[in-house]
Automatic annotation (TrEMBL):
Membrane topology: Single-pass membrane protein
Protein name: Signal recognition particle receptor subunit beta
The UniProt record lists the keyword Cell membrane: no
Source species: Agelaius phoeniceus (Red-winged blackbird)
Keywords: Endoplasmic reticulum, GTP-binding, Membrane, Nucleotide-binding, Receptor, Transmembrane, Transmembrane helix
Gene name in the database record: Srprb
């Protein structure tokens, strides 16, 4: 009925504009303009997010990695109880930069700091201790799960890098094995959490967001953000006197900036 009511107006408009071809062009131009405005809006929101968050458990090597990226030098670190931030230059002409923010990994602090900075995250580097991984896999998966079901993280979909650190140690697990184990653990967590009556903050909202695709085993390709894995070593193969092995991480930072 509505279409029938509009038809006389459309016919009159076609006559005034010189036929259906002109009207089609106008409709196409309006569609292009709307698409462009939406693209500018999305890009504007993305460009306002300049932070790269360094997350991970205690002793994963986040703070040393943070120091190495900024100065290249080795320094002794201790467990962080607050955040550290600095501008990281990504190009020789210093025109491209991001703000690196190293967040505490202590269980009692990490979620409150994530809450504070998550809206500004352009990208997230989740640092894993590749040597202690087998022992810590459940804790690593638990924290990563909490990050991945966060509504702000899901909405903004920042690029995510799992940085498999401490590869200079012989017993370090490979990035491929770490990915497989994390997918398995996250799949288990998804099943147990989806059965819970309350969300992570304790409110009765029917449980946290669904992770991945319902009815399929979880894998990282199902997430709204692009996820990559790299092997790295903040300490470096030559120890304190040598250089860190962060080339893959640095290339990724340039890509997401």
């Amino acid at each position: 009925a509505m279409a029938g009511g509009l038809e006389p107006h459309l016919a009159a408009l076609r006559q005034e504009l010189g036929g259906p071809a002109v009207l089609s062009v106008l409709v196409a131009l309006i569609a292009v303009a709307i698409t462009f405005l939406l693209w500018r809006f999305v890009q504007g929101r993305k460009s306002s997010r300049k932070a790269v968050l360094l997350l991970g458990l205690c002793d994963a090597g986040k703070t040393l990695l943070f120091a190495r990226l900024l100065s290249g030098r080795y320094r002794d670190t201790q467990t962080s109880i607050t955040d550290s931030s600095a501008v990281y230059r990504l190009s020789q002409d210093k025109s491209t930069n991001v703000t690196l923010i190293d967040l505490p990994g202590h269980e009692s602090l990490r979620l409150q700091f994530l809450e504070r900075f998550k809206a500004a995250a352009r990208a997230i580097v989740f640092v894993v201790d590749s040597v202690a991984f087998q022992r810590e896999v459940k804790d690593v998966a638990e924290f990563l799960y909490q990050v991945l079901v966060d509504s702000t993280v899901l909405r903004n979909a920042p690029a995510l890098l799992i940085a498999c650190n401490k590869q200079d140690v012989t017993m370090a697990k490979s990035a491929k094995l770490i990915q497989q184990q994390l997918e398995k653990e996250l799949n288990t967590l998804r099943v147990t959490r989806s059965a819970a009556p309350t969300s992570l903050d304790g409110s009765a909202t029917g449980g946290p967001a669904q992770l991945g695709k319902k009815g399929k085993d979880f894998d990282f390709s199902q997430l709204p953000m692009k996820v990559e894995f790299v092997e790295c070593s903040a300490r470096g193969s030559k120890g304190e006197e040598g250089e860190a092995d962060l080339e893959a991480l640095q290339k990724w930072l340039v890509k997401v900036a």
